[in-house]
Amino acid sequence: MKFGHPLLLAAAPLAGLLVGLLLFLARRRRDRLVRQFAGGPGRAWADPGHDKSRLFLDAGLLILSVIALFVALARPLVFQKNEQAELQGLPYILAIDASRSMLAADIRPNRWIATTNAIDRFLDSAGNDRVGIISFAGVAYLNAPLSFDMTAIRTTVRYLDPELMNDAGSSLASAVERAGRYFVSNNIPQRVVILISDGEDLDGNLIPTARRWARERLKVCAIGVGTTTGAKVPLNRYAPNGGAARNTFGQEVVSRLNESNLQRLTAATGGKYYRLGENGEGLRRLREEFLKPLAETAAREDLQNYKDWFQIPLAVAIAALLARILLAADRSRRSQPLPAIGASLQR
Predict the structure, then answer these.
(1) Vertex 222, ends 288 and 178: CA angle to 5°?
(2) What value does the mean pLDDT take over residues 86-105?
(3) Which of 84, 134, 198, 243 has the fewest CB atoms nearer than 10 Å to its CB?
């Protein structure tokens, strides 16, 4: 439960104390006036005949009604998630490494195909999430802004191709930078990036960039693709065995999963790291262990997921006031003899 106006809730006990104090002072003033008029408490006729237990109960009911009224004005809210609401999903960006090293075949059939197949299954269970796509090699590109249209997002992923990327190398920092600028420029409070990569980074500016964007509430989760033993990077996907890319020294390029880079990245931003796995288990674990709890937290911050319960404290306040009317503490009198008056009449 939460309250729409917590300051009024904090004021409720103070209001009760104030009413109790005012009732106490009013009763003292009334007793003083009665004593002045009747000649002191020793006079039997000076006693108004009120039932003290009723008076205490009457005061308690009034204090209860005031406190309950303040609680009602504080607007008590009970969480009840609206599964039909369009905005209940979590916004996040999939930053997909589309460098040529993703064509390495250390996982079957190769890194790229395994990645896109896993993403397709992951998006199939996106629900009401809003998903955007960034692809990156040496430079990051926003391929699709945040959208509920999973068909369009999945189509975008299928059209990505490492062989069409003209930027050599791989820059994880550029993906983080591009995603961060998108979230900030669109004023999106929930800022999550799921970076899917083999972890190779030729930029060297990853951790400072990650820390800078972490101060802007950006969280980066990483999915590692490949193996630590690695594999040769083919010239293209159709290259026969042995048709590997070569560096400037004429040596064949071998790409290996660099988990250290990805783990340091997630640690710097408060995210989590998983390996992709043979069937995309890493993405499924990410959804269960990170995205769902985060979406639950976001839902609890959205007042659309709460129902008003002010009716209950308001009903208590009304019931307490009605009980005071029925109690009629000021009108009730206990029977009492007046011996002094009676004796004077007999004489």
Answers:
(1) 120
(2) 86
(3) 84
